[in-house]
Write a structure and sequence with these properties.
This protein is α+β, with helices and mostly antiparallel strands and 279 residues long. The chain has helices at 92-102, 124-137, 144-158, 172-180, 185-188, 192-199, 203-214, 218-236, 241-247, 253-264, 268-275; strands spanning 4-6, 19-25, 34-36, 39-53, 56-60, 64-68, 74-90, 118-121. InterPro entries: AraC-bd (IPR003313), Homeodomain-like_sf (IPR009057), HTH-like (IPR037923), HTH_AraC (IPR018060), RmlC-like_jellyroll (IPR014710).
Length: 279
């Protein structure tokens, strides 16, 4: 099979330092077998499939994170539901700098020897943290300091004894509701009432627990989850914005636009135009 070499300059515009994107893969034909002239990290947000890497087939599931070396040859095959992943490509000189400054004695992460690259499965809290960190630097792809900040924070999460969430008291029922809420449309549209029903607790109890664990109201958490869902849909689908607005439980398109712009500093249309670029 022919191997394509992906070049970072093909994915970044003038002045950008790195390329960060969210993509959804439905078949092996979506991304050709390739290697790179840059370092790459990807992690699976939703779905399952197979990583076809250096002639081997490695299962991929939600939470899996992989650090690709330039010589690695890979592509993907997915289950019927597809794989949603975030992907970060950045210059090799950054990897070289990090090794010299922080990891001179290690053969882990990007410097792992052997036929397969570094691969780890993150728990749900660490996965959420990595995704949140990435979303914070999304609009700063021209900035080395934002890239370095993300990488340092991510490495800290991956180092031994660093990958524990700050709050150890989040109950399993609340964690489960946060994960399941955006993927159950009928409940998602109901907002806070739907979230509480998913928790199997009364509304007041859920609100108190959310305040304790997340330092925010249940309404604020629901609004945040709705906007994250909207951003994912805009980035990885061609669904009409009105449909996404409805799926998020909004009856007023103007109110949806106002909330979205308040978080992402751009309109839904601008967000979609910027992020629907295949890496």
């Amino acid at each position: 099979m022919k191997v394509t070499k992906f070049l970072l300059r093909h994915f970044i515009t003038r002045g950008e330092i790195f390329h960060l994107t969210r993509v959804k893969i439905f078949s092996r034909d979506d991304i050709s077998l390739h290697n790179h002239d840059y370092a790459e990290i990807f992690w699976i947000e939703h779905g399952s499939g197979t990583h076809l890497i250096n002639g081997k087939k490695i299962p991929l599931n939600t939470g899996d994170l992989v650090m690709m070396r330039p010589e690695d040859q890979h592509t993907f095959a997915s289950s019927r539901q597809g794989i949603t992943m975030m992907n970060l490509g950045f210059p090799l000189k950054t990897v070289q700098y990090f090794r010299k400054r922080y990891f001179s004695g290690t053969e882990d992460f990007f410097w792992k020897k052997g036929p397969l690259p570094y691969h780890i499965t993150l728990d749900v809290n660490v996965l959420r943290s990595v995704t949140h960190l990435a979303e914070k630097i999304w609009k700063h792809q021209h900035s080395p300091i934002h890239l370095d900040s993300f990488l340092l924070s991510m490495f800290r999460l991956l180092l031994p004894n660093e990958n524990q969430p700050d709050n150890q008291d989040i109950p399993a029922w609340l964690n489960n509701a946060v994960q399941q809420f955006p993927i159950q449309p009928d409940i998602f549209r109901l907002g806070a009432r739907g979230f509480a029903s998913l928790c199997g607790r009364n509304l007041d109890h859920v609100n108190r627990t959310v305040r304790k664990c997340y330092n925010k109201t249940l309404s604020a958490l629901v609004a945040e989850l709705r906007m994250q869902f909207a951003a994912r849909q805009l980035a990885v689908t061609n669904a009409p914005i009105k449909s996404i607005c409805h799926d998020c439980g909004f009856n007023n398109l103007g109110h949806f636009y106002k909330q979205f712009q308040g978080i992402y500093q751009r309109t839904p249309s601008q967000y979609r135009d910027q992020h629907q670029r295949l890496s």
